[in-house]
């Protein structure tokens, strides 16, 4: 984000999700204006106009363009640094099927649920994780789909 950009954060001071965005903005040294939402009142017309899907704060407005959902906003603020971090993580796979080597371990379990957000990150960040990090994308496809299927079948067979 350029210093000449107009950035507004629609937020409520007590929101932990808004705090996530405020921390990211502060870490990057980005100046912004805050529009405080009153959580005790009904939702403002501005919020309803900007976040037509969830109608929730925070909403970052960058040169008139609204970005919703705190994790998406943080990824947007990070711009392409996100890819560098994902590449670092991909490097830990080396030639192993799992982050822990030959067996599923803590990092696989901790990171796998985030695989389902890849499409969202790609859509809003306008990049391709598969093009940038092919081993990581293959890891997610290989294990993400299988675990989702096993979880859904084990849940339905337990009833």
TrEMBL record:
Name of the top EC class for this enzyme: transferase
Every GST N-terminal domain range: 5-85
Single biological process term from Gene Ontology: glutathione metabolic process
MF (Gene Ontology): glutathione transferase activity
Subcellular location: Cytoplasm, Cytosol
Sequence ranges assigned to domain GST C-terminal in this UniProt record: 35-159
CDD domains documented for this protein: GST_C_Tau, GST_N_Tau
UniProt cross-references to InterPro entries, sorted A to Z: Glutathione-S-Trfase_C-like, Glutathione-S-Trfase_C_sf, Glutathione_S-Trfase_N, GST_C_Tau, Omega/Tau-like, Thioredoxin-like_sf
Cellular component terms (Gene Ontology): cytosol
Keyword vocabulary terms for this entry: Cytoplasm, Transferase
Record field: catalytic activity: RX + glutathione = an S-substituted glutathione + a halide anion + H(+)
EC number assigned by the record: 2.5.1.18
Pfam family, one: GST_C_2
Protein family: Belongs to the GST superfamily.
Function text: Is involved in the conjugation of reduced glutathione to a wide number of exogenous and endogenous hydrophobic electrophiles.
Protein name: Glutathione S-transferase
Species in which this protein is naturally found: Vitis vinifera (Grape)
Source species taxonomy: Eukaryota, Viridiplantae, Streptophyta, Embryophyta, Tracheophyta
Gene behind this protein: GSTX4_21
